Amino acid sequence: MSTEPLFLLAVIAVLAVTIILATGIGGFAKGGEWNRKHGNRMMRWRIIAQAVAVAIMLLVLWSRGQ
């Protein structure tokens, strides 16, 4: 299970979402110029990364059902 390429890709996608979310929340908590400049961009990247992660998870589930 853990050596399947799609599973590993799903894990990487979830980690990417976590890192992007943590960076966005950290910038929001700190405030200031960085948050004004990059806050919305970080949350857009999070939404995109989440969509990709969900799609990969659906592929994993679909491949296991075959």
Write the topology of this structure:
Layout: H1 5-30, H2 32-65
Helix pairs in contact: 1-2
Please describe what this structure looks like:
The structure is a single chain. The protein contains two helices and no strands. With about 70 residues, the chain is mainly alpha-helical. The protein is about 90% helix and about 0% strand. The radius of gyration is 15 Å and the shape is elongated. It has helices at about 5-30, 30-65.
Total number of beta strands? 0
Gyration radius from CA atoms, angstroms:
15 Å
Q: What characterizes the major β-sheet?
A: none
Report the helical percentage: over 70%
Give the SSE order as H and E letters.
HH
The DSSP helix count reads 2
Mean pLDDT: 90
Low-confidence stretches: none
Percent of sequence in beta strands: under 5%
Structural class: mainly alpha
Using the alpha-carbon principal axes, give the shape.
elongated
How many angstroms does the end-to-end distance come to? Answer: 14 Å
Domain HIG1: 1-66
Keywords: Membrane, Transmembrane, Transmembrane helix
Protein name: Twin transmembrane helix small protein
Organism: Paracoccus albicereus
